[in-house]
Specification:
The protein is α+β, with helices and mostly antiparallel strands. It is built from 9 helices and 5 strands, in the order ααααβααβαβααββ. The chain has a 3-stranded antiparallel sheet. It is extended, with a radius of gyration of 31 Å.
């Protein structure tokens, strides 16, 4: 009996050495995922603020980046006093450089300006950049001074309507710095990203991983509230320029949309006859031949 007890002596220590490090490692990774969620939430807010600033500042990249940095102040400490906020903003400004944060304007694209630029509006605003008009979008399909523009998304360069060209679309890629990662868990996550995404075609994301940062990407779309100025916008060709975009989701159902302008209060779909309906124009009082229809004429209007 004593020999059996001697064989089991130290078993608890072995179990502790095997189990506890594994549990601690899993716990640290759970905390790291929680910090990633917090960073993503802050980044979503900063991206929204950046887009909001861009919509009222003619899609100016400098205004967009300034608003993004300002909105990231809370992530770098925040504060309740002016001096604390100034310190946190300084940290955000030092870390959200072009090497660590990439802000892409996906729309309007270069092709958007090719299709819908207004020379008269650019002259009125006294700018040498191309400008996309932003007013009266419900009533116009082309700039007022370019009435013959190609506004068909299926054949023009951008694959957009004028209203689509007035959507500001941003994609922001941010790298979480190493000092905001859980020790060991952050390094493990960064190592796993380097292995799993070794074939990533995006050199910027690869650079973030190489710098021991964890890449996080956010998107947002917002309607322009001012005319968009062209400023080294990215090229994103549409169907008319060898692009092949596909509409997400199932195809539309319910028949074709009304052909009349959407600004017409009486704009409704034309009624469609149901199989078996009689000719709606057949009126026995006007055409005696209608009385000989079989079955006899009962209703004079088609079902909607």
């Amino acid at each position: 009996m004593k020999r059996c007890c001697a064989c089991q002596r130290g078993a608890t220590l072995v179990e502790f050495v095997v189990v506890v490090p594994t549990v601690l490692f899993l716990l640290m990774n759970l905390i790291q995922y929680g910090l990633l969620y917090h960073a993503k939430s802050q980044l979503n807010y900063a991206t929204y603020e950046a887009a909001r600033a861009g919509t009222v500042a003619n899609a100016n990249p400098a205004a967009i980046r300034t608003a993004f940095t300002r909105a990231m102040t809370g992530y770098y400490g925040g504060g309740t006093t002016t001096s604390q906020l100034a310190t946190s903003y300084g940290k955000a400004l030092a870390d959200t450089t072009a090497a660590n944060v990439r802000i892409e304007i996906l729309s309007p694209s270069k092709e958007s300006f090719d299709d819908y630029a207004s020379p008269q509006l650019a002259a009125k605003l006294k700018t040498s950049s191309r400008v996309i008009p932003n007013s009266n979008l419900a009533f116009i399909q082309c700039p007022m001074d370019v009435p013959g523009c190609n506004n068909n998304p299926k054949t023009n360069k951008s694959g957009q309507t004028l209203a689509d060209a007035n959507l500001l679309k941003l994609r922001i890629t941010y790298g979480i710095p190493e000092r905001k990662q859980i020790p060991l868990a952050g390094k493990f996550m960064n190592w796993a990203l380097g292995i799993l995404n070794s074939g990533d075609p995006d050199a910027f994301r690869q650079g973030l991983v190489a710098a021991k940062r964890i890449p996080v990407v956010t998107h947002t779309v917002m309607r322009m509230q001012s005319p968009a100025y062209e400023n080294a916008n990215a090229s994103s060709p549409g169907p008319g320029n060898d692009g092949k975009p596909e509409d997400p989701g199932p195809p539309p159902t319910g028949g074709e949309l009304p052909k009349c302008p959407v600004t017409d209060p009486a704009c409704t779909s034309e009624p469609r006859p149901v199989p078996g309906d009689l000719d709606p124009l057949c009126d026995p009082k006007i055409d005696p031949a209608c009385a000989n229809q079989s079955p006899p004429c009962q209703n004079l209007t088609p079902s909607p």
